[in-house]
Amino acid sequence: MKLLYIIFFINLFNFSNSSTELELRNKLFNNYDVNRRPVLNVNDNVDLQYGIEVKSLEFFDQKAENIKFNIWMTLLWTDQYLSWNKSNYNLDYITIQSSDIWIPDLELYNAAAKPIIYDKYGSLQLYNNGHILWVRPTQYSFSCPLQLANFPFDNQNCTMLFGSWKYSANFLDIKPFNYFKDDNIFQNISIDKDFSNNEWNIVDTYVKHDDIEYLCCPGELWANSFYSIKLERNFFTYMIVISMTILLTITALVLILFPITNYMRTFVLVFIPLSIIWLQVYISDKIPVIEYYTLMEQILLTSFLITTANAFESSILYCIINENFEWLKIFYKKNELNTHNKNADFKDVKIILNTLNNKIIYKNLYKYVLIIDNCFRVLMYLGFIITIGVLLL
To answer: What fold characterizes domain 237-322+358-392?
Structure first.
């Protein structure tokens, strides 16, 4: 029996609250105009404070320099037409639809696409003093120009520029939370504690606000807020590419230690630059076309030039050795023929060629080839160590 009484009084209380809220809603929205700025004095401006919380990074199209964040945007403003005396209605706040009231015009100036608002007509909290709190989950896609000189050890600053298309600061004063005072419970920008991305980490955020006069509207100031997010790249995947490139180059440098007469030295060296070209193609698909070399491209280019030079040098010297200096014989033959009488016997030419085949001459020339090869080895080793050291350290 007692339980029935309790249930009866609870239902009676809920009915009373529902009746009170319905009465309040009728009072507030009876003559409300959603197209009129919510100020009693037309010369007053609407004070809008807002902030964002970054929930996730949806994608980062680096070739198009376009990034998309999933953001919870918190907006707070006052509607002077929507307030009530708490003692009369005993309600701190009510929940309303965004389509039922005037909504401040807040846009992302550097948007790359139309924002995706999950709860476009969703609920807002209207407090008895006229304050309206709206937490709006939104996906914003915007331009983020990249600075790739240190790629893949780079940081990127992506900035969102918010402002109003319709109202200047005289009519809609837009400011980030905590920008001019520290007694606000909301943050102007924050990162969700569960934020995670495979390639990027958020390492810093900052907000800048400025009132700007545009050429279209002389004498009027427009509120602009710059929300910047600093991203640091996870470079571990790219370190694999760098390691492979350096390993291929070291392999080429080891191969030139083989004797010049070993055909396997030249055979393998020819294919190493082709492997580096494939790695360059793989990287070029990840970043936009730019007018300067990235750190990654400098490493790849250094390795490509060194391995290509090794292949050329080895091929030329191998051909010289294994052709038994036929090119030198022909050159010597022409000079001898020019110095002899035009009626010289062919037997004389044959004697000259036989002389060139002398083992002593061959050994002397082979010695000079080895000197060239040894000097080339030293040059390649020093060039590789110094260049890679400068680039990576």
So the answer is: Methane Monooxygenase Hydroxylase; Chain G, domain 1 (1.20.58)
